[in-house]
């Protein structure tokens, strides 16, 4: 588009030269180069997976400013050329406008807040100038250009709605793939992703505790009340675990009646002991399941580390070893991993 604009300005300038043409051409070229520079400067950052939404909006606003500035220059340039007594140049500038609108719809069509205003800003003055000329051919041309603008705007909006719906579906499916269907807690995959995203970025002086929980007396509930009651009990346990956590920690269901809790930002091992006790106390409280009060308990095995090179699976295995010792001690026991 930059090349097409420069070529058009040069061709017009070979027949008519004045201050307005030079100024408009210079502004348009400057705006277009600024747009290309913005794309080149922020491209790597904009494509990064870790780009924050607020930063993305700032980059988009900078791009939109340069994009709309070029459209405004076209909006000034088009009517200027249509007023010149040269039908060949009129044909040239109309081709430029149509090409610009097609490029905007294709290039930034997923950003209707940029695409539609830029198309309208660029071509509307040309439409009005042609319509007010009073010449039948130019009036007809203005009608055609207006129809193209309306159709292009509609197409951009429809494409945006379709793409937004598709992205929403992918996000939903991605969330479902990382969520335990019974308890609505994160599953093992989500737990691993959380660990990798948070532990490496945590304060270097802090540690993480991995708590491995296993329910006691859960099987008798299944045998006596049936699997639906067991499922309801697991869902209730998941809710209580979530309510027992500090902000920034995470609970997940690993499978069956086994759960894991990751406690980030520990300054002292005693903090892990306190959370373990809180989790055990929360599960020990009776549950109302299918109109009956059900009592269970849980054992907890805990592994603690400040080593950022450690893997979650290793820590879960260590916590599981501690859990095995806790279960040998009996209901509600808490054990810490000892190498």
UniProtKB/TrEMBL annotation:
Keywords: Membrane, Transmembrane, Transmembrane helix. Residues 206-339 form the GGDEF domain. The keyword Transmembrane helix applies. SUPFAM superfamilies: Nucleotide cyclase. The chain crosses the membrane at residues 20-42, 63-83, 89-107, 138-157. InterPro entries: DGC-Regulatory_Protein, GGDEF_dom, Nucleotide_cyclase, Rev_trsase/Diguanyl_cyclase. PANTHER family: DIGUANYLATE CYCLASE DGCT-RELATED, GGDEF DOMAIN-CONTAINING PROTEIN. This is GGDEF domain-containing protein. It comes from Sphingomonas tagetis.
